[in-house]
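Suppose you are handed only two things: the residues of a chain and a line of SMILES describing pyridoxal-5'-phosphate. What would the bound structure be? This form records exactly that question and the answer produced for it, so the two can be stored side by side and reused later without any lookup.

QUESTION INPUTS
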Amino acid sequence: MNRRTFLAAAAATTAAAKPAKLAVEGGTPVRQIPLKADFFGTQYYGEEETRELNDVVRTHRPFRWYGPGNEPPMKVATFEKELAQRMQTRYALAVTSGSAALQTAVAACGIGPGDEVILPAWTWHSCFAAIVLAGALPVFAEIDESFNIDPSDIESKITPQTRLIMAVHLQGNPADMDRILEIAGRRHIRVLEDCAQSVGASYKGRPVGSLADIGIYSLQINKTITSGEGGAVVTNDPMLFELASRYHDLGSLRPLHEKVAGGAKADTLAGSQFRMSEFTGGVLVAQLRKLDRIVADVRATARRIYDGIRDLPGIKLRHLPDPAGELGSAVFLGFDTKERCERFRTAMKAENVPVGHPGGSAILPIQPYIEHKRTVHPAWPSFTSERGRAIQYGAACCPRTLDILSRFAGPSLDPKFTERETTDIVAAIRKVHPEVMRA
Ligand SMILES: Cc1ncc(COP(=O)(O)O)c(C=O)c1O
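ANSWER OUTPUT
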């Protein structure tokens, strides 16, 4: 090596060792244009969905129970059969939305006035609404660093009136079902799994939704597979299935579901009307058959990010009760303070790899309508009992939830992110993390 090449090599080594100037300090950003994750299921729409929809138009059979022809239409029925197989449950019931599925599942569990239901302080409005609409009392438990309900906080919220625990698998991350089921089993309380944000995730090898008494899925546009709107209830219990089916269809049990349930055991009761149309069912048959591909793609995306950042000194990631079962729809980094997390967000935005606090849910106890216990009627049974009058929502009932969510942030992922895009995410995190961690 002559002197000139030695000096050039030395200069290159120094340049490589010197950290690149952060974009937030005037350096060149990792990307020229901001990275943005797209919806999942709709990116996989293709001729399969079109064929299913055309079928419904051609046969003039948009209603699931009957139409022209001798045989009943089969789109929704096929979706139910294949969903039960995929989720490893005995029964599946299609409904109009995840919110309708929650109301149906809560009704099937026989929840009503005087009962208490424990739910995480950070989840979607529909969870709270389903409890209130049943006339029962919602009781919040804190989340932990998985962003799911903290099993150790559940115990302290149980009273003799507690009838149900909502285990919500938030943002693709299965909740700690072993501990939740152990607590619930010991206290003879039912568990409902809300898998709206984790369709396709699993816990210790079993699909979420199949582990507890009853499970629900949302098939709205933000979810893993979608028909725009849609939902489903799954269970292994024939009685819960019959009651759910009745509740979703004005209290009656149609012949197909009577056969699936192995006969009718309950009487007609007042129910709602959450029946799914054949158009929706057709799209969902096509989407469900693509679920494993979508899950494999998004998990591969997440794996590339985890593998690229895991070795960063001092890195802290969201707690995953079962890393292999996670959907991988987002990767979250945690910091010791809110201020450091904000620095991370600002620096990543400048690199054109924006990261957000955990989203897709709301910190429910601080929503004004919840703090003020607003319902459609002043005599609503949820809040007229002694417990209902005494219970106080607001920030004071979920300090840990507020703290955790303010200290975590990360990029939303997309099953169709290219190698280039995941490399950019990794590069941006590796670039800003040492600076953000500096005191
Ligand atoms: C946790 C959770 N449960 C229930 C729902 C309700 O689903 P839908 O929007 O289909 O009514 C959502 C919707 O985002 C959700 O995130």
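WHAT STANDS OUT: Confidence is low (pLDDT under 50) at residues 1-15. The chain has 16 helices and 13 strands.
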